Amino acid sequence: MTASAPATPATPASPTASSSPTASSSSIEAFVEEASAFLDEHATRRPTGTARVVWGEGEDRISYFGDEPPEVDKAKVDAARAWQRTRHEHGFGWITGPTEYGGRALSPLHDLVYDQLEAGYDVPDTGVISLIGLGMIGPTILAHAREEIKQRYLPAMFRGDAIACQLFSEPGAGSDLANVATRAVRDGEEWVLNGQKVWTSVAHHAELGMAVCRSDPSQPKHRGITAFLVDMSLPGVEVRPLRQMTGGAEFNEVFLTDVRVPDDHRLGEVDDGWRVTMTTLMSERASVGGEGAGPVERAVSRSYLTAMLEAMGLSRDAAARRRLAEVLADLTATGYLNQQSLRTLLDGRAPGPEASASKLMFSHNLAAASHLAAEMVGPRMIAETGDWGTFSWNELLLGTPALRILGGTEEIMKNIIGERVLGLPKEPGTDTKAPFRAPTGEQS
Amino acid sequence: MSLDDATVEVVRGSLREVFATGRPVAPALDELGWAEVLEEDPSIATTVLFGEQGRALASSGLLADTMLAELPGYAPGTHTLLLPHPRLGSHPGPTGVLLASTAEVVVVPRATPDGVVLATIERSSLVTRPAGGFDPGSGWQLVTLGAALQPDSVPVGAAWERAVATGRRALAAEIIGVCTAALELAVTHTSVRHQYGRPLGSFQSVRHQLAEAHAALEAARVTLDVAWSAAEDVAAWAATVAKLRAGATQSTVLRRTVQVLGAMGITLESDMHRYVSRGAALDALLGGHLRLADEVGSAALAGADLHPVVTT
Ligand SMILES: Cc1cc2nc3c(=O)[nH]c(=O)nc-3n(C[C@H](O)[C@H](O)[C@H](O)COP(=O)(O)OP(=O)(O)OC[C@H]3O[C@@H](n4cnc5c(N)ncnc54)[C@H](O)[C@@H]3O)c2cc1C
Fold first, then answer.
1. What is the DSSP letter of B149?
2. What's the number of domains chain A is made of?
3. Which residue has the higher pLDDT, A6 or A283?
């Protein structure tokens, strides 16, 4: 998944990275002072912080997924890399990370404080680096890679030199990720990978991929899986763009043909890749359910939506007011839910199945806000009229279905809540004991 | 008179072929002897024609032609009708939408204090720009007219209401066609694709979503049937409700058919996104469902006779 992201890496790295109590309690005040000085020197403060929206003023884009032409996209990625490097050089690239890999070994609270400070400045969006690479794959490497591999890749990733993508989904393995068929066959000190990945966000910018592969088809499907870090420049790795309904080409097909990966790039034990994968997925749900992206956050806000009601002459309309209040109440509740997840993180616990609730709420809120806008703005959303704040909503409206799919579909999130939180019995007929057999024939 | 089922199926098959080849629709209809079919049974003929156009995601000037047929004195083929801009509902104003049509003369409706008047204008003298955006495949052109009313304006009285009603029934049929095709695609996909060793369609939440879509679609279909058989004094009202129902249905149906396709549903790899944008675009013409819901609600409160749409 990819998104024009929170202005900063939203997910503090794995709690295992959070460090000694002395570091955690190192004075927040001093840290704030240091971070503010850094930001003042390297970035411009936003004129009014989280100011009130004045209808008709400011950028008229409400897009969760970028849909810019490739040159613009490329320029944004370069800017993201440059800003991540600057952060890193000044000790803000990986606030919670262990010092031996270039981190600061401070607490998740420091990380959060930094994010909030940075939100007051106009800095490049680093989502392309942080959402998947730093937010999901970084913690996975930290937890499951060998020492030399951590040394080699973690600093590069947090310096903005290596963007990482998630080579998980396949044509035959979407919701049922454990059904991956991409083969990994051992050959001495190397593994040979063959298969096809699909919907791979940011692969076209990535130096690194985390591939989930089938290493032993004779075992039940969750068991014969092994995960690898793949250098995307290796021979046999081919990336082809796929276009989304929003017009953006943010995800790709990735073909792996006789790609030779050294054994030291393996994550976790042989045939134990499912456990490794779960580390990544838990971080994903937490980060998708987390904060909204810049322009989206601005539009899906009390200030914006209220201004919209007024501009459309509906501020006295009882039905419109009730719908607005419902959306705002949901946004507020989601904020509390996220705070609760954050406390879990601050307590040093890994995100659990409750992250699924945040993710559900997040996509629900974006959909509800865009439907509210559709009602307020009416047909001007469909046919461009040039009026500010009207047609632009269709970017979000077209983007919200994707949020109900990526990072685990809404139905799967509900199944997880049903089974792991509520303790309901599993749905019948989903067999997990039989050996994996590579799917015969093409699945649509 | 009405067409028997077997004839309807033959007609449907021929229309499907016409739309599948993508050739210009109007001449193909002439070859089929469409005028006779239409005369025989306007309700079924129109419903089938627009249903097939929706299913095929085709774009043509048929809607304008069908509306023009209600307005005396204009020949479809040489003339096309400027539809009110989506923001105006069914009330003609200074901006409008031209459908994909090769006609060289545009009939321009304008609202005046004395009712709607019509004027004609050469297409070549209009400033147009592609509607683009949400449904780039629609072939619509947006038109902004100069302030002055054309000198040859003629009042059309109640004929405008009849044209709008006809247009709304046709649009309802087209939207239903779009949704039917989308639902078929979703049913096929979820029957063929397996996850967790089972077809997707065997998961209850998937089949429930598609069952909800089907129920909404059937409700839209019967509402349209009723609108066709409504007595003349309530025909406009019934057409409004049929269009409202169809518009609301496309939102219900397409949200679900997209969801059950997973990532495939939001990429250009599958046609699903085309149904989504066409459904929304058609809803916006001659009054979107939200706007029509407002109108119907206000009319009900003002004491309008809701028969035959609501009976109590
Ligand atoms: C914008 C975007 C970005 C993405 N980025 C990445 C990426 O970077 N890397 C990556 O590996 N993948 C990525 N994905 C893929 C994503 O993880 C999958 O799309 C998702 O897991 C669903 O798989 P699928 O699309 O194959 O849908 P399917 O699994 O085929 O599901 C189709 C429908 O069936 C339902 N369904 C399936 N199983 C069940 C069940 N047991 N019970 C009830 N309903 C069920 C689903 O909820 C859905 O509605 C991305 C997807 C999107 C949309």
1. P
2. 3
3. A283
Residue range of the domain that includes A300: 295-406
Q: What confidence tier does B137 reach under pLDDT thresholds 50, 70, 90? A: confident
Q: Is B262 in the pocket of ligand 1 (CB under 6 A)?
A: yes
Task: Check whether residue A346 and residue A388 sit in a common domain.
Answer: yes
Q: Which residue of B has its CA nearest to A396?
A: B134
CB of B194 less than 8 A from some CB of A: yes
What average pLDDT score do residues B291-301 get?
A: 89
Q: Which atom of ligand 1 is nearest to the CA of B193?
A: 30
Residue B167 has pLDDT above 80, yes or no: yes
Which residue type sits at B16?
R
Which of B185, B191, B203, B259 has most ligand 1 atoms within 8 Å of CB, for mutation?
B203
**Residue positions of A annotated with a catalytic role:** 284
List the single range of A80-84, A103-107, B127-131, B269-273 with lowest mean pLDDT.
B127-131
The tens digit of pLDDT for each residue in B217-241 reads: 999 999 999 999 988 888 999 999 9
State which residue of chain A sits closest to B257, comparing Cα positions.
A401
Same domain, A155 and A273: no
Which of B206, B208, B267 maximizes ligand 1 atoms within 8 Å of its Cβ, making it the mutation to test the pocket? B206
Does the residue A97 lie in any domain? Answer: yes
ipTM score of complex: 0.86
Interface membership of B268 toward A (CB under 8 Å): yes
Residues B240 and B227: beta-carbon distance below 8 Å: no
Q: Same domain, yes or no, for A157 and A225?
A: no
pLDDT digits over A32-50, tens only? 999 999 999 999 987 764 5
Which is the closest atom of ligand 1 to the Cα of B209? 49
Q: Residue B269 is part of which domain span?
A: 158-301
Of B97, B133, B258, the CB nearest to A394: B133
Contacts of A179 in chain B (CB under 8 A): 195-196
Average pLDDT, chain A: 83
Q: What is the pLDDT of residues A146-164, one digit of tens each?
A: 999 999 999 999 999 999 9
- Beta-carbon pairs below 8 A across chains A and B: 119
Interface probe with B: pick from A396, A411, A432, most Cβ of B within 10 Å:
A411
Q: Which atom of ligand 1 is nearest to the CA of B264?
A: 25
pLDDT of A56 reads 73
pLDDT band at B303 (very low <50, low <70, confident <90, very high): confident
Q: Extract the tokens encoding A334.
A: 């989601």
- Whether the predicted pLDDT of A165 surpasses 80: yes
Q: Of the candidates A101, A75, A103, which has an alpha carbon nearest to the alpha carbon of residue A87?
A: A103
Do A374 and A322 lie in one domain? The reply is: yes
Q: Span A96-124, mean pLDDT?
A: 90
In this structure, is residue A426 part of a structural domain? no
Confidence of residue A444 (pLDDT cuts 50, 70, 90): very low
